[in-house]
Specification:
binds adenosine-5'-diphosphate, about 25% strand, single chain, alpha/beta, three-stranded antiparallel β-sheet, about 250 residues, binds magnesium ion, 10 helices
Length: about 250
């Protein structure tokens, strides 16, 4: 039996004061899938993640998530509660708190910082936290201040904070930017581990990384989907070469 898609975007349009950054996108993500979203700068990749997580509103179209027929009118926090997590490019960790305190805080944002740090975690919550620290390679750094972690570790902590909510769909925007080769490798492996329990959409422009860790790739250009397929398939697509290399369309 074919998996039910976890996410189905239909004819999604995003309009910034007359500029259509997304021009009728249809995008379906299967449950358990890792989907890479690539495309030149300004293609609309980040805007696509923004509209899925409710940060930006669609002018028209529908976004179905699991059995919710259309979440496009929902607030960001409602969408988080439905099970969609988004890691932004800008850091959102608390540098003066330890790794484990950051993860604790991510568990229940609405409880407020001080009451939360005083309150004891339940057994299941503690188990979850240890599992996330182990998965993200931060177990032995749990008592370190987040501000002292390496760049890669900070990124993993942020991913870990998203995982604390046990999302069913995780949206990552250029997760390996600024990472060393070893950190990139670990991040690719982490994404694959996460996908065992959570579908993942990754915006990335590092083609070596995409080649190594992707199965299905969606190429965006000027607010539209240009093509979809394996990395080999899309690399053979002349339209892709055209948008990346800036070849003119009108010669022969
Ligand atoms: P990508 O992530 O693929 O590089 P973006 O989604 O960030 O592209 O941007 C797509 C287009 O929408 C770009 O032309 C960008 O300038 C424009 N854009 C993005 N956000 C806004 C905004 N808040 N207001 C107006 N234009 C925007
Ligand atoms: Mg972007």
């Amino acid at each position: 039996m074919k998996n039910q898609p976890i996410l189905s975007c239909r004819d999604v349009v995003v309009d910034f004061d007359g500029f259509k950054a997304i021009q009728g996108v249809n995008l379906t993500i299967e449950t358990g899938e890792i989907r890479f979203l690539i495309g030149p700068n300004g293609a609309g990749k980040t805007t696509m993640l923004d509209v899925i997580c409710g940060k930006t509103k669609a002018a028209s179209g529908q976004i179905q998530f699991k059995d919710h027929p259309d979440i496009s009118g929902s607030q960001e926090h409602e969408i988080v509660n439905l099970g969609i997590a988004r890691k932004f490019q800008a850091p959102s960790i608390f540098s003066n708190l330890t790794v484990s305190e950051n993860l604790e805080l991510a568990l229940k944002q609405d409880r407020g910082l001080w009451s939360l740090l005083r309150a004891k975690l339940g057994g299941a919550e503690r188990d979850k936290m240890w599992a996330v620290m182990e998965q993200t390679g931060l177990l032995y750094h749990r008592d370190e201040k987040a501000g002292l972690l390496s760049h890669g570790q900070k990124q993993w902590l942020e991913i870990g904070m998203q995982l604390m909510q046990e999302p069913e769909l995780l949206l990552l925007d250029e997760p390996i930017a600024g990472m060393t080769g070893v950190e990139r490798e670990k991040t690719g492996e982490l994404i694959h581990e996460i996908a065992a329990s959570c579908s993942v959409v990754v915006v990335e422009h590092d083609m070596d990384f995409v080649r190594q860790f992707s199965k299905t790739v969606t190429v965006m250009h000027e607010g539209q989907i240009l093509c979809e397929g394996t990395m080999d398939e899309i690399q053979q697509n002349p339209m892709v070469a055209e948008v990346y290399l800036g070849r003119r369309k009108d010669h022969a």
